[in-house]
Amino acid sequence: MKIKKFSKKPLDLESRIGAKPIVCYPNSNIEDDSLIILHKARENLIKKEEITIAPRDAKIFEVKTGDFFRIESIEGPQVGDLNLFQSNNLDEKFYSGKTRALYGTHLSVGDKMYSSFPYLRSLATITWDTLDWYDYDEDGGSVHDVIGTRCDPYTSKLLTGKDYHYCCHSNLTRALVKEKNLDIKEAEKIIHDVLNVFMCTGFTNDTKQYFMKSSPVRPGDYLEFFAETDLLGILSACPGGDCGSGHSSDEAKCYPLKVSTWSVNEKYLKDIKPSIISSYNKKHGLD
After folding, report:
1. Which pTM was predicted?
2. pLDDT in tens, 92-119
3. What distance in Å separates the CA atoms of residue 96 and residue 108, rounded to the nearest whole number?
4. In 78-141, where does DSSP find H-type helix?
5. CA 193, 36, 30: angle at the middle one, nearest 5?
6. Considering only Cβ atoms within 10 Å of each terminal Cβ, which end of the chain, N or C, has fewer?
7. CA 265 to CA 258: how far, in whole Å?
8. Alpha-carbon span 174 to 83, nearest angstrom
């Protein structure tokens, strides 16, 4: 935090500050017409299956290329932490940092979820968001962030001195171990920074610290995605509930979440361009 200042201000201060901000990664050249196509396609969706994730737990779900999936609030305000993998290669996983650099701190309709290096392709596109009306509030808060990493037992231990096993990191790890029969050490290594679905967050104006507030999500609200490759998803129903008071404990009131998958006739998707792995030659200057 830049609140402790020990160095002296330079004499040429005025010439060093106030420069015009420049967007680091302009995304206009990766925009396409897919959202128009997807919005027409989603009018013809057919539900395939659904699962329910219990409070303070996580489950795995799979989505085929060309299908849609929804994360839905069903009983009360509840935040979910989402991990996404390419289902045939778990080394290719959601890259929240690069997605944030391309689209900003919070995601919504039309934003894509990019995968990790060396793949860097869109895993999924967000196609509908019943909370897009929330926009950004007076504190700079908004929903569906890619700035928080996921609540975890290590930070909880650091700050409280206690062991807690139902943080989202542990929930996600446990789901991989139980449902994919992975070794716990291998599972934990590939759990990654999340999309905080429904979570309302931002940075404080003074210290720029990550904050959370009660989520505006209510039963019936959902966030919908289009799968651009075969996906393995894991969703944790966060122990913070609506994250209006705290997390990493059993104190908050928590509710289940629902994940449903949907198919559509491929004729509605014939003009969708496939998501392609990065064509960078990977030589890194070592020719």
Report:
1. 0.96
2. 999 999 999 999 999 999 999 999 999 9
3. 14
4. 96-103
5. 50
6. C
7. 24
8. 13
